[in-house]
TrEMBL record:
Bilayer-crossing regions: none
GO MF terms, alphabetically ordered: hydrolase activity
Protein source organism: Aerococcus mictus
Keywords, alphabetical: Hydrolase
Pfam families named among the record's database cross-references: HAD_2
Protein name (record): HAD family hydrolase
Length: 123
């Protein structure tokens, strides 16, 4: 997270988790400081795979989809990013392990952990 915050102009979080649960997780892991903009389920009218959560982030940060990158832990989230026209790095959550489900066209990379994402970004 330090690398992302130091490297990118903006870092947003878009989760399908309910607000209360989401903010408790951020507090528990002490990571809210890494995000410039946070959206949870109650902050959007349409949940993933609808692109609303990502479109709101693009609008908030005033960037185009081709200037953004999404790091996702689910196929549904990757579909939402695809529907917004944003490339995705897929890091499957342990609760939702790699599946045989088809990947959206926008999945640029699929890895096992965030350290691999950072290595890929540095290369």
């Amino acid at each position: 997270m330090d690398y992302c915050k130091a490297t990118f102009d903006a870092v947003g979080l878009g989760s399908s988790a309910p607000n209360v649960r989401g903010y408790k997780m951020l507090e528990h892991f002490e990571i809210s400081k890494y995000f410039d903009h946070i959206l949870f389920a109650q902050d959007v009218k349409h949940n993933k795979p609808h692109p609303e959560v990502y479109l709101k982030h693009l609008d908030y940060h005033q960037v185009d989809a081709d200037e953004a990158l999404v790091i996702e832990d689910s196929i549904v989230g990757a579909q939402a990013a695809n529907n917004a026209g944003i490339g995705v790095v897929l890091v499957p959550d342990n609760e939702f392990p790699k599946s045989s489900e088809p990947r959206p066209d926008n999945v640029l990379l699929e890895v096992d952990n965030l350290n691999e994402v950072i290595k890929w970004m540095k290369d």
